[in-house]
Specification:
single chain; alpha+beta; seven-stranded mixed beta sheet; four-stranded antiparallel beta sheet; 11 strands; globular; disordered N terminus
Length: 293
């Protein structure tokens, strides 16, 4: 369930009349900023620089925010959609920073972001938007970049550019493609209690215990080491996990640092029944039904 749509929020450098600019190619194209989930997330150690060594399996849902772009005289971003108000006041959204990192001085883009994913929710909303911005810039301006160079924008950004299942190490930015049989098209339900769960405090709450490496071949038996610290900060996450476990899901887990949790199902009918059950019992929670890519 989404909140009522928010009024557009305009960020960045302004909004000139791009349609009347005869010098620019009249290209308007869109990309889905696919929601990211962590099939597993093992925290191995805290580094001297304050970051944490991770082992994680990224996967992506076939739904998310929608980002539209067209060539422009200067960079600009207008945000619409259910969660637009949550980005009000931002002066340099990740979309703009990612596009500038790719395009540089060779061009500019005017973006419209339909913000459908909650922020600070563990499903890579901002990073997914940045990934979509990179893909759009590559299509429109025919430019390329080594995605490893985008890690300074956020550890999840390189994974979100590709938006396909991969194994992440380091801080999640060192990626390797991985084939997990029978994963694609698995029905999934995402649920968020509509409470933000900022990443920094969750990592600081981690108890420092290395519970062992992640075996990608046995990811169903793996874990998310951030569930316990996230629940300590946002107890409603525990209620979401309990509710999902009561729906007959094959896997239930928190994504990232929370607060979004997900459940995987054997078929679409099971997922849809679960979504209806959650909506009936918890109408104030946000839900998203989809399938893994």
């Amino acid at each position: 369930m989404f909140p009522r749509s928010s009024p557009p929020q305009t960020l960045g450098d302004g909004s000139p009349n791009y349609a009347e600019s005869k010098a620019l190619p009249q290209i308007l194209t869109s990309e889905i900023a696919y929601a990211k989930i962590n099939l597993a997330l093992h925290v191995r150690s805290r580094r001297a620089d304050g970051y944490h060594e991770l082992e994680t399996l990224f996967a992506f849902v076939d739904a998310g925010d929608v980002l539209t772009a067209q060539p422009a005289d200067q960079f600009a971003l207008t945000v619409t959609g259910p969660f637009a108000n949550d980005l009000a006041g931002e002066t340099d959204n990740l979309v703009l920073r990612a596009a500038r990192a790719l395009v540089g001085d060779s061009g500019a883009l005017a973006f419209t972001l339909d913000k459908r994913l909650p922020i600070a929710s563990g499903i890579g909303g901002g990073s997914a938007d940045a990934g979509a911005a990179i893909r759009l810039a590559q299509q429109i301006w025919r430019c390329t970049i080594d995605t490893a160079q985008l890690a300074h924008l956020g550890a999840d950004v390189p994974a979100c550019v590709a938006s396909r299942t991969c194994f992440g190490t380091g801080v999640g930015d060192q990626l390797a493609d991985i084939d997990l049989p029978n994963l694609a098209r698995t029905p999934i339900l995402l649920v968020n209690p509509r409470l933000p769960c900022p990443t920094g405090p969750v990592f600081r709450q981690w108890d420092g215990v290395d519970r062992g490496p992640l075996d990608a071949a046995d990811w169903r038996a793996a874990r998310n080491d951030l569930e316990t610290p996230a629940i300590a900060l946002v107890p409603q996450i525990g209620a979401v996990l309990i509710a999902l476990r009561q729906t007959g899901a094959s896997i239930t887990r928190m994504s990232g640092s929370g607060a979004t949790c997900y459940a995987l199902y054997e078929d679409i009918a099971d997922r849809d029944r679960a979504a209806q059950n959650i909506a009936d019992r918890h109408p104030d929670w946000w839900t998203l039904s989809g399938a893994l890519r």
